[in-house]
Design brief:
The chain folds into 2 domains: 110 residues, no CATH class; 37 residues, no CATH class. The protein is 30% helix and 19% strand. The protein contains 4 helices and 8 strands; from the N terminus they run E-E-H-E-H-H-H-E-E-E-E-E. The strands form 3 sheets. It has a 3-stranded mixed sheet with strand order 1-4-5, with helices on one face. A 3-stranded antiparallel sheet has the order 6-7-8, with no helix packed on it. Strands 2-3 form a two-stranded antiparallel ribbon. Helix 2 packs across helix 4. One of its GO terms (biological process) is G protein-coupled receptor signaling pathway.
C-alpha cells in the first residue's frame, strides 16, 4: 500500500512561452496579486480556504498516477518511459489498475475502489438533540465507513 499525504502544497507555474512568463511575472509580482513570488504555500498556517470538493479531484489525480506507476512497473520493468506493451495496453487495462489502487488520500482517509469501480460510502451520522446545557442542534453521533460506528456516549443532556 502506498501512502500519500499532502500537508502543504507549493504553487508553481510553468508558462509555455517567454511572453506568457513575462506577463505572468508582471501580473503576480508587480502588485496586482498579493503574492511573494515563489514563496506561496498552502498549508495549515495559510489563510487559504479550500473548496470542499477539491480533495476528490486531488485523490482522483493520485489514483490515476498510482495506477500508471503500477502499470509501468508491471509492463515495463527495468525501463524508463513508456514501453510498447504499455502503449498498446488500452483503457480497459488501465481501468483494472485504477480499481486496484489503495492509498491514503488528501483528507487522510483510505482511497480504494470496489469491483464496480466505486469508492466505498462514507457517511457522518447526525442526530438532532435538545438539551438543557447547550443550544439545540445536530450532534455527530457516528459514522459509516464499511460498517456502522456509533458513539453512544453522546446523548442529550
Amino acid at each position: 500500500m502506498t501512502s500519500s499525504v499532502l500537508p502543504s502544497t507549493r504553487l508553481t507555474c510553468s508558462p509555455s512561452s517567454p511572453q506568457q512568463s513575462n506577463h505572468l511575472t508582471s501580473f503576480l509580482c508587480n502588485g496586482n496579486m498579493p503574492l511573494s513570488c515563489g514563496q506561496e504555500r498552502i498549508g495549515i498556517d495559510s489563510k487559504y480556504e479550500q473548496e470542499g470538493k477539491v480533495q476528490f479531484v486531488i485523490d482522483a489525480v493520485y489514483a490515476v498516477a498510482h495506477a500508471l506507476h503500477n502499470m509501468h512497473r508491471d509492463l515495463c520493468p527495468e525501463r524508463s518511459g513508456i514501453c510498447p506493451e504499455m502503449e498498446m495496453a488500452g483503457g480497459k487495462k488501465l481501468l483494472k489498475y485504477i480499481r486496484a489502487v489503495s492509498f491514503n488520500g488528501s483528507a487522510g482517509t483510505s482511497v480504494t475502489f470496489n469491483r464496480n469501480g466505486d469508492a466505498p460510502g462514507r457517511y457522518d451520522l447526525f442526530q438532532y438533540q435538545l438539551s438543557n446545557g447547550s443550544s439545540p442542534g445536530y450532534k455527530l453521533i457516528g459514522q459509516w465507513m464499511d460498517m456502522l460506528q456509533l458513539n453512544v456516549s453522546i446523548t442529550a443532556d
